[in-house]
Every structure is written in structure tokens, then in C-alpha cells.
Amino acid sequence: MLLTPRPRIPRPRTRRIKAALLASAVSVCLIAASAPSPATPLGVGDRLFPHLGNPGYDVESYDLAFTYPGTNTEPLAGVTTIDAVTSARLDRINLDYAHGKVGSVEVNGVPAAFTSAGEDLVVTPAEPLPAGSWMRVTVHHTSDPVVAKDQDGGWVQTKDGLAMANQADAGHLVFPCNDHPSDKAMFTIHVTAPNGYTAVANGLPAGADRTRRSTTWTYRTEHPMATELAQVSIGRSSVLHRSGPHGLPVRDVVPTKDLKTLEPWLKKTPDQIAWLEGKVGRYPFETYGLLMAEAQTGFELETQTLSLFERDLFTEPAYPKWYVESIMVHELSHQWFGDSVSPRTWSDLWLNEGHATWYEALYAEEKAHKPMEARMKAAYRASDSWRAAGGPPAAPKGPKPGQKISIFRPNVYDGAALALYALRQEIGRPAFERLERAWVGVHRDGVASTADFVDLASGIAGRDLSGFFQGWLYGKTTPPMPGHPDWKSDAPQARKGA
Ligand SMILES: [Zn+2]
Q1: Among candidates 415, 429, 421, 419, which has minimal Cα distance to 461?
Q2: What is the CA(353)–ligand 1 centre distance, in A?
Q3: What is the pLDDT of residue 4?
Q4: Tens of pLDDT, residues 384-433
Q5: CATH superfamily placement of domain 343-495
Q6: 3-state class of 260 per DSSP?
Q7: Dihedral of the alpha carbons of 261, 262, 267, 269, in degrees to the nearest 10
Q8: 325 C-alpha to center of ligand 1: Å?
Q9: Where is this region: Disordered (predicted)?
Q10: How far is it, in rounded angstroms, from Cα 414 to Cα 30?
Q11: Which CATH code for domain 236-328?
Q12: Mean pLDDT rounded to a whole number for the chain
């Protein structure tokens, strides 16, 4: 994700009602200890989002089917089928789901009871499921494209339809899921829309069934994907095809009326992919492209194989050309850093954003003569303030109440790229470049943590770097920059109001 740099007026939000509900759920638990426990929201213990994800199973695949009613203000009809393997005996199956009506649930083809608890859909199968068994959960539900007052993300209403922006924790506002990046799975996505609309989703097309009134479009991923990276575009759009390095299919999804205006930007993608392949190795997925949405999202987002961009980023003349291109490279580099290699927890977000910022800055240096060193020196000056406001890069502060994307602070962007710069200063360019290639190679299609990065870096440098990383990733203040002892970080108070 990258916030589009323009002033936005934050909407005041409140979470008081939910907090009260949770508090009462807890007290019910205490009283009814011997009776069957009430359904409660569970999580996988993410420090920043405690109720995200669910214990007891590992999802292998999602099959999502949406029916678009032809307007983006009415709920879509949905059927979500989840194939998973249980890792514990399950009397109940918690799914994350919070923004639609559930009509019925089946577990292994048998109707199951269900209720909601917090942002979880809690399913009670007719018979408990043993550990180590396959389960298929089918949920018939609606999916509401109108954003609720206290929720960030999920469906994005565009001028001509819908797109999706689920990072960090909004996949479950669109479909029932295990909404944590540590549980990646394969996706098949079907979208039925009235004729005249075009639907595109992650992965490659796997057929389109046309009837007199509507078309069902099917897409399938060839690589596992986190729920936060799902994308579905429905609109009056055209799909442009071109060829990338080694014949990689590149496809962009563009409002049909803007085809001509946007083409000069879109045709840059194959060279950008080739540039990044030169840095870190082969592009990790089956296809890539840009989804140009006519919407005020306030950010761009690296949805897997099809990054979401605000159309206006490319049509607003105030943005310099080099800057727009470096943002294209930011989202492209996330396909390696964040998508192919997903964060183990949301505290590992710096691995996504620090690397995407790094290649964004490196591209600007090599292609537009914007020196990395000057950018990093400026980041160093601000770094202590960023740490004071948002925490150190690998132990970021939690989101502000009601603004869950507020974890996307400068400490995980330039603040984290600064830590990578320090690492390159510390171990030298050749070792740093080997590490970058190795990281996306070793953890391809996987999930990795900050500790994994420290281990790999130490192995490649041939010495224990845990002390070095402790300061750069977890320190309250910024350590001295190797090779630049003269760099200074302004005291947080001095920058207030600056
Ligand atoms: Zn980003």
C-alpha cells in the first residue's frame, strides 16, 4: 500500500459500542464456565489485530462466487466455499466475516448452525471435526459494497462499479475467510455481472459463460495468496494485453473511456518488470497489470497480479512523471515483497513497505537522478520522530481506533527503507544484493518473519547481525548510520509543528 500524498480529512469514528459488546461477552464467559461456552471471536494472536485469523485449521483453497446486481450500492449475492485441513479437533469453526447477511452454512455438505460474535462468523457443525481432517465449509451470504461507518476497506465503489482493497484486515468485509496473511491459499473467483460490464480478478482467466443477460467470469490463481490481496474489478472497463519479459502476460484493466490517456503509462510496465528482475530475480507470478480505478481511495494497493491504482494519479498534471513511475515500481515490487513473500504477522509489515520503498527510491535514483543518499539522509533526520510517533519499524504501534490502515505510517516506509540502507552500508553492496535475491527466492510463495530476515542476512554476511538489527528495527531511537557518523536525527519535539 502507498498513501497518495494529498490532504485528506479524517472521518471521526467511534468504536465504543463494539467495545461494550466485547466487554459483556467476556463477563458472560466467566459466569457460564460450566455450561457450553458462548460463541466468541477468536484470532491467531496478531499483536496489532488480535481477532484476525482463526486457530484450528489451515485453508487450502477458496472458491468465491459473486453476483453483481448492476449497481454498486446494493449487496452482491455470494457463495464462499472454503476447503481447509483441521489442525485441532473443532466443535466450532470460527471464520472472519463482518459485513453481509449469512443465509446458510454447510460443513461437508451437511447444514450447520451459525451465529456471529464480534467480527467472526461462528459455525457449529452437526458433528465435531477431528484434527487432521479435510473440511469444506460453504457459506451462502450477501456482500455489502457500502462501507460501514466504523470499517475501513473491503469493496471500493468506483464510478462505474467496484474494486477491492482489503489490506490490512478487510478481506472479511467482503467474504468469509481466515483473514490473516499467515494463512495463504489458492483462489478461484467467479463473478456474474450483467452484460456490458467486465469482471477481472487475481490470476488468469479460466472461462466466461455468457447468457442473454449476464456473463459469469472465472479467474484462478496459480500461486497461493493472502486474503488481504484479493482483487475483483467490475466495471465498464477494457482489458489491455501486452507481453512482458519471457512472454509474461501483462494485462491492465482500464475504464474504457480512458484507454488513450492511460496508455503512455501502461506501456512502461514491461520495462519496469525487467528492471526489477535485474535486481531480485524472476517475477514471481503468472501475470501482472494495473487496475485503474475511478475512485478516491487515497492509496495504491499491491493486490496480487493486479495492483490497484487511483486513475487520477495518472491524469493529475501536478505529479511529476518520475514520481508516478516510482509509485508504479513501488506496487510492482510488492509482488515480490509482501505478496509472494507474505508477512508472518502485521508487525512484519516493514518487510513489505521498507522493500517497496527501497525499490521505489532505487528506480528514482537510476532512472531520474534522484540520489538515494539524499533521500536517506532526509529520512535519517526524521527517523527519531517517526519512531516516537509510530514505534520502531518492526514493533509498530497499533492502529488508531476505527482507522485500521493507520498502521501505514512513515516508520514502515522510509523509516524501514532507512534500515535497509544501513544494512547495505554495514554488509556492503554485493552481500546486500545477494540477500535480496535470496530472500524472495527462499520464501517464494511463503510466509516469513522479521526473525527469518535477520537469520538470512546473518548467514549471507557470515556473521551474527542480530545486535545490528535490534537497534535498527526495535530501537526507540535511530542508531548511528554506518559510514555516515555525521548524520543526525532531529529530536521529536523539535519537529512538532514543523
Ligand atoms: Zn506499499
Answers
A1: 429
A2: 5
A3: 79
A4: 999 999 999 999 999 887 776 789 999 999 999 999 999 999 999 999 99
A5: Neutral Protease Domain 2 (1.10.390.10)
A6: helix
A7: 160
A8: 14
A9: 479-498
A10: 46
A11: 3.30.2010.30
A12: 92
